[in-house]
Automatic annotation (TrEMBL):
Gene3D superfamilies: 1.20.5.2050. InterPro entries: DNA-bd_dom_sf. This is AP2 domain-containing protein.
Length: 163
């Protein structure tokens, strides 16, 4: 029989343990209710708390992310950029425009040096509808163009029917 480690009142990062609050059904670890220094109450697995994996309610992660992206010139330069949005057909504007990094000359087509093959991709409705590799560039371009016709045309037809 294992002995319970008393944690009430202990502090772990920004979290102060208030009380034991059940047991995790997945791994049988005790769960602990904690108050974060920002005021939020969260329930945390004791092993994750003691191991230092959890140090706040999530506010620390948000603060660190804000700090990182506010110091990232590339990110801040693109904040509020309307090109990061979707067009009237619901297609990401960024997927319509060729990136300066693009070496194939076709959006959604790239060369994979690790496999020495050409890749064709197209995302539609939040998932890849085309994600395939080809022996040559022409095949990859053809696959991308066909997928664009099939899926992007479908969007326009659906809007005409609904509208």
């Amino acid at each position: 029989m294992s002995r319970m480690i008393e944690m009430k009142g202990k502090q772990f990062g920004r979290l102060t343990v208030i009380r034991q609050n059940g047991q995790d059904p997945k791994n049988a670890d005790l769960l602990w209710e904690c108050r974060c220094s920002c005021g939020n109450i969260v329930t945390v697995d004791g092993a994750r708390l003691r191991g230092g994996y959890v140090r706040s309610c999530g506010c620390l992660r948000r603060e660190l992310a804000h700090e990182r992206y506010s110091q990232n010139e590339g990110f801040t330069r693109n904040m509020g950029n309307p090109e990061n949005l979707r067009n009237s057909d619901g297609i990401m504007v960024s997927s319509l425009k060729e990136s300066p990094r693009n070496t194939s000359g076709v959006v959604g087509v790239s060369y994979d040096k690790t496999t020495n093959r050409w890749l064709a991709r197209l995302m539609y409705g939040g998932r890849y509808v085309l994600l395939k590799s080809f022996d040559n560039k022409a095949e990859a371009i053809d696959a991308r163009k066909e997928a664009e016709k099939m899926y992007w045309h479908k969007t326009k037809v659906d809007k005409q029917i609904v509208g």
